[in-house]
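Reviewer 2 asked us to include a model.

Predict the structure of this chain.
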Amino acid sequence: MKYGKLALIIPATMAFMVAVAHLSCLYFGEQCYRAQMAPDFLVESARQGTWLAPVLNVIISALFIILGFYALSAAQIIRQLPLLRFVIIFVSVVSVIRGLLPIQLWIRKPELVSSVVLVVGVAWLLCGVFMYSGYRRLRKTQSLTSE
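Predicted model (structure tokens):
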């Protein structure tokens, strides 16, 4: 398998796994939201049984599923989705920033960052780098073969 495809399949897989993890909160409830470090207002919504937590959960999960499909589209596994280049670059940048935030905090104030938060940050950073580098590699390969 080409490096570019593999580099895009990894973040696609991660996105789908995150979506499943988020959706598991619909079944497991308040404790699952708390374990996944959801904001307090979502945990409280789940505890009280209001619609806010499940609706936001489904919306966030849908965004991760869409992100996974965009990564698969960039890997040329499914058809090309609209605004592919923009979405891949945007998600790559956001993922790298999301990954760097806990790392820089851990460097400055390690007592404020749990090991789980640090690992999640590194995973986001890697997903952003893989997504962008995989996309660039495939585009470069395409332009070389089309000449």
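Residues 3-141 form one domain. Residues 106 and 112 are 7 Å apart (CA to CA). We have added this to the supplementary material.
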